[in-house]
Every structure is written in structure tokens, then in C-alpha cells.
Amino acid sequence: MKLEYVPTTCPYCGTGCGFNLVVKDGRAAGIEPWQRAPVNEGKLCQKGRYAHEFIHNKDRLVKPLVRKNGKLVEASWEEALTLVAGKFRTFRPEELACLSSAKASNEDNYLMQKFARAVLKTPNIDHCARLCHSSTVAGLAAAFGSGAMTNSIADLEEAKCIFIIGSNTFEQHPLIGRRVVLARKKGAKIIYADPRFTPTAKQADLYLPLRPGTDVALLNGLMQLIIKTGREASGFIAARTRDFEALKETVLQERYAPENVAAITGVPEEALRTAAEWIALSKPSALLYSMGITQHTVGVDNVKSTANLMLLTGNLGVPGGGVNPLRGQNNVQGACDMGCLPDVYPGYRKVADPGIRKGMEEAWSVPDLPEKPGLSVTELMEQLAEGASQVRCMYVLGENPLLSEPDLNRAKKALENLDFLVVQDIFLSETAELADVVLPAACYAEEDGTQTSTERRVQRLRKALEAPGEARADWQIICELAKLLGYGEQFSYLNEAAIFEEIAAVTPQYGGISYERLEHPEGLHWPCPEKTHPGTPILHREKFTTPDGLGVFSAVEWKAPAEVPDSEYPLLLTTGRSIWHWHTGTMTRRSESLVSEIDSGWVELHPEDARSAGIVNGEQVKVLSRRGEVCLRAKVTEGIKKGVVFIPFHFRECAANLLTNSAFDPVSKIPEYKCCAVRIEKTRQTGNEKEPHGKGVGRNV
Ligand SMILES: Nc1nc2c(c(=O)[nH]1)N[C@H]1C(S)=C(S)[C@@H](COP(=O)(O)OP(=O)(O)OC[C@H]3O[C@@H](n4cnc5c(=O)[nH]c(N)nc54)[C@H](O)[C@@H]3O)O[C@H]1N2
Ligand SMILES: Nc1nc2c(c(=O)[nH]1)N[C@H]1C(S)=C(S)[C@@H](COP(=O)(O)OP(=O)(O)OC[C@H]3O[C@@H](n4cnc5c(=O)[nH]c(N)nc54)[C@H](O)[C@@H]3O)O[C@H]1N2
Ligand code: SF4
Ligand SMILES: [Mo]
User: Fold this and answer.
1) What is the CATH number of domain 571-682?
2) What top-level class would CATH report for the domain 65-130+330-493?
3) CA 635 to ligand 3 centroid distance, Å
4) What's the pTM?
């Protein structure tokens, strides 16, 4: 039998690994390493290795579904799209909201925001970047003028010290973890700050076990030590930064003295001193961070604080240095670049700027684009839950808020308050189950396109298979709807390459990129403004992209999380991920190899906390917060700080987000997924501890 090898890019995380999808008789038969893939050089993590397994799962959506008499039933495309277009027509712009998808391609995302703005005329477009790195975008824009990773992944190998804070790199970005290992082999020192002793901690030379929600105190403490020992990069600070005096005044306060920082964070003083010394004396030092920094009510402050540390030590604009936020989803960088955010068009150009709006109206040949920025998804959910939103109708493409939003009881109430909900997905997600119309989409292997990884590398997705049943590419569905609403001309694309040409024309950073140039396996790093431009792996070499070209210090004070433990809820819950599963599990829980490793959730807690609650390892327990409760298995481990518990949020039958707090950062609107107060109780029943996570529970594979 003839095998076909189609080079494409992994649909899971933002690392951007390349592989060959092996096709046999029109079906995905496996994944083959692709040695020429620049990021992973033929290596893959477990999810990439099995990224073919969910494609032909029997649960794929193959026909549109329409709700009739309370039930979702199969319908023709004509019936479903006519119904959706007809409904959309009955709402005013401010009554509509769209969510786009960091799982979908740049082409799909570009068209989704164009559809929202140009056809529905609504400013309300957002996506999961809000829940993920919105604090990065705001914090790093203030510090450097740009919210992306400052350096490239390969560049990490040049680092002499790598400070990883709030990123479980080895589980969540495994092929970036590989670069950390390679750097360590070359002699780099690895420092790791996390409340849990994760697989990443095992690779570290120095582990800082901090309490969740104390990052600013830790970072200010490190900066005080660096300044007091005269190890700041004075030359760099004088030439390339401003507002240093204000920072100095703040971090030199008594409250950030080592003994006080040790008391706030739980990190021993000696470890603080060593970390400060390594970061300041190793040239260059790189900093990596992810959700442990961003997902807090002080997310923007946390991000600014990481930037302060690297400005202070002069580690920007140099190979092997930098502040490197690891973006999560395969195409979350791209979905932001494409303007799927309520305040910016493609290329981060402000919606509120009349000149830019006029330019977009000309480029798209449409009048009357919305004049003001729209709602973020966190604000929208809050208003909807309170029954106080103007929004009556939502179009959700490739997101599953009913498992990924904080405080799920509230999120459900919010979506139930809508008059009409359309969900476009590849599976019947928890959110799709609630929809009025479900539209079946093609997955990553079934359409052409591009996606942009965490290091701003634009790479190709290639069509290897036909979509199942009647499923269609996301962009084609959007174009059909636009046509029915009278915008056929503005949405008439021959293929994905034609959409990309328009992207390049209206997005300055992508101006020089084309499908032709992306045929090269290296792809291209934006900014790449012209056809002959080689792309930009390292940002801020000569100057920052701030108005005056200088890096900006921000004096930030440590503040406690919105909800802290008390006598009723004495433990601090933090949430996150496992290497084996992806977010709400729609794809990985339909992948046999991954499910055979782990197929339900658990709660990690410290032996002393377990003992005081009378809980033993493996026992079924109940975890309660002010908002909800879940039952799951206890994993008693020394690898978590006393007083802290951890639950992964992948599993619908014990959803961590029933517990989490919807409080959000005032600037970036990111929810505080990483801190809330809970208590643990023994469950009454005994003897059937295994049942809730045995095979076949939750979804069928
Ligand atoms: N296998 C897998 N990989 C993924 C994903 C997935 O679902 N599964 N999702 C992708 C996405 S979208 C994202 S955004 C990334 C997220 O990647 P990460 O941010 O690395 O993942 P998390 O598990 O959310 O959180 C990272 C670490 O933060 C720690 N932490 C918790 N609270 C705090 C705190 O207050 N301070 C500090 N310093 N640390 C804290 C947690 O213990 C955890 O180890 O992963 C991407 N990669
Ligand atoms: N407690 C807690 N909650 C969290 C977090 C946390 O750390 N803790 N992290 C937050 C973060 S960082 C993130 S990024 C969010 C993620 O939240 P979501 O984006 O809601 O989660 P996913 O499961 O990735 O949802 C993607 C959906 O897209 C569908 N899909 C996949 N491919 C395609 C495609 O090609 N086309 C279409 N139309 N659909 C497709 C999938 O089936 C799935 O339903 O979760 C957030 N929630
Ligand atoms: S590291 Fe990320 S991109 Fe690479 S194979 Fe794993 S999930 Fe895919
Ligand atoms: Mo994310």
C-alpha cells in the first residue's frame, strides 16, 4: 500500500514542532518525525507523536446540528446556515459577540475577526489569549513596546543561566524543555520557581519553592539583592532604559529584604541569594515564564516584574537572553496577530484610531466598521451571568468555555442567558452541547493554512486528508455565512493562499511573508515587512519598540491574591495541566495512547495536609470552594508546598473550574486561575475508590 508523508505543524502547543502526517488509503495512519523541522529536529512529545489518533474518532462532527424541541438533530448545511444568518440579522451589532480559536489557522482567525467587524459590525471579538497571556501583551507592551517572546527557542542554548518561573516547561512545552537540557549540558545553570516540584524542577540546579501568588515579592527580593551587591547592569540601564530610580526605590524597601521575602514566599533566604547571584553574574541569562506568572489578578504586575529583572541585568536584545513568555496554544500568537482581540486589528493596530479604521474600511471595501473597542470575554461572561449584558447572541469558533472558563456554574448561567448560541467545532464539546446550532469543522489535517508559534515563527499547515462527512474548513463556513449576509464579494477567496495574501497586505509584520516563502521548512519569524526581509528571530537588538525606544522599568508592589485561605477554606488551590492531556480534553481524551496513560483527574496535596484531614494516597476525596465542589482521587506527594493543592483542569467529570475564582486582573482582564481558597473532605463512600476514574468514564475513546 502506498504511504504518503505530508509535512505539517503540530496542532497542540505553541512550540511549533513539525512532523510528517502519514496517510494511507485516505486515512491518517501515523506520525513520522521530520528531521528538517527546525524547532524539534525530528523529536516529538507524546501529544505530537499521537496527533493522528483523534482525527478519525467516531465522535467527529460530520453534519450540522440544529436544536429542535430541545434536542440537537442533524440538518443540511443549507438549513443550518440559513437559520444562523437569519438569526444574526435580527440582532444589533452590540447584541452580538464572537469567540475565535487559537487552535485554528491564521487564515481562519483572520476571517473570523473580519466577519465580526465587517459583516456583523460588532466590536466584540476575543479568544482564549484573554485567559492565557493577555497580561503578557499588556505588561510587555508597557516594558518593551511588544508583547511577544523576545528571543527564539534555539537561542536558549546560548544562555549561561535560565530562570524558569511559573512554567512547567518539561510537561507543557516539552520541546522547549529539550533546549533547556541542551543549554544545561553546555554548562548553563537552571533556576526553577514553582509551588510544585514538577518534572521541570528535576532538571533544575536550584529550586525555589514559592507559595502561589507571591511572584512579585520574589522578583522584587531578587532585584534588591542584585542592587545591594552592585551587580545591576549600569551601562545598559543608562543607555537603554528609563524610570530606574522609581524601581530602585520600590525594591529597596524593607519589605523586600531577604528575610521578609522568605517569609512571604516560603523560599529560603539562602536560595534567594544564590538565585540573585546566578542571574546577575551569568551573561547572558534568559527568563522563561508562563501561566504561573500570568493567571493572577496581579498578572500584569507579575509580567512587568519579570521584565524589570531582565532590564536590570541587561539581558535584552542579546542572543541567549530575553524575557520569554511561552505561548500556549499552537496558534495563540497568530490569533492575536490576526486581530482576534477586542481592541486591535491585524498587526495590533488600534481599533479606536480613526485613521487606522479608515484604512481597514478601504482595504476591506466596507463602510462603518465599529468605532470603539469591544468586550473582553471575561467582561462579557461577567455581564451575561449577572443578566446585565447587551449581548444576546454568540458565535463560538473552536473554544470550549464551559470547561475552560473559571467558576463554571457561573459560566453556564452566562451562556444560558443568551438567546442564540452557535458553536463551530470538530467535536460536540460541553459548549456545543448547549448550542442552538452546531457547525462541523475540518481539523488541522484537513485544510491548508499557516500558524504562528511562540517564537513568532510562521509555518505551514498542509491539507493531508478530506474532512469527515460534511464537515467543512472553518474559513469556508465563515465565507458562506458572509455571503448569506450580503458580503459575498468581500469574502470570495479561491483558497487559503488567497486569504494569506490579504493578511500580508494588511498586517505590517507579515508583509513580506507568502506561501511560496513558507515552502522552506524554516518558516519565517515576524516582523518580516518586505519580500526580501529575512525575518526577525531576536527583538529589541538596538532599541525597544516603545515610542522613545527605551525599555521601561515599572515599580510594582506585591499584592495578595483576590481570595486567600481562611478557617473555612484553609488550603490554596492552584490549577494547571498534565503532559498527557490538552485543556478540555476534546482531542486528547479521544486519543487511545494518551488515555491509556491517564484518564481522569486528581488532586495533589502535601502529606501533612493529608494527615490532618485523615486522607491517604489514592483515596477518593471531595474538594470544595465557595463556588462548587468536585470528587476526585487524592495524590499525596512531597512535591507540593504545604497548604497548597493542585488540580489539572482537563477532566469534565471532576472539573477544576467548578472551584476556581472568576476575579480578574483590572488591566488585562485575565482570570485568577492560579489561586483560590478550598477545603478537602473525605467522601462518605469507601470501597469503590477506583470507579470514578476507571476506563470508560467521561468520554468514550
Ligand atoms: N500537555 C499540555 N501542554 C500544554 C497545554 C495543555 O493543556 N497540555 N496547554 C498549553 C497552553 S494554552 C498553555 S497557556 C501552556 C501553559 O503552560 P504552563 O504555564 O507551563 O502550565 P500550567 O500547568 O498552567 O502552569 C505552570 C506552572 O505554574 C505553577 N504555578 C501555579 N501557581 C503559581 C504561582 O503563583 N507562581 C508561580 N511562579 N508558579 C505557579 C504550577 O505549579 C505549574 O507547574 O501550556 C501549553 N501546553
Ligand atoms: N483552571 C484552569 N482553567 C484554565 C487554565 C488554567 O490554567 N487553569 N488555562 C486557560 C488557558 S491558558 C487556556 S488557553 C484556555 C483554553 O480554553 P479553550 O480554548 O476553551 O480549550 P480547548 O480545549 O483548547 O478548546 C478548543 C476547542 O476547539 C476545538 N477545535 C480543535 N481544532 C479545531 C479546529 O480546527 N476548528 C474548530 N472549529 N475547532 C477546533 C476543540 O475540539 C475544542 O473544543 O483554558 C483556560 N482555562
Ligand atoms: S512540544 Fe508542543 S508542538 Fe511539540 S510535539 Fe509536543 S505538543 Fe506538539
Ligand atoms: Mo493558554
Assistant:
1) 2.40.40.20
2) alpha beta
3) 26
4) 0.96
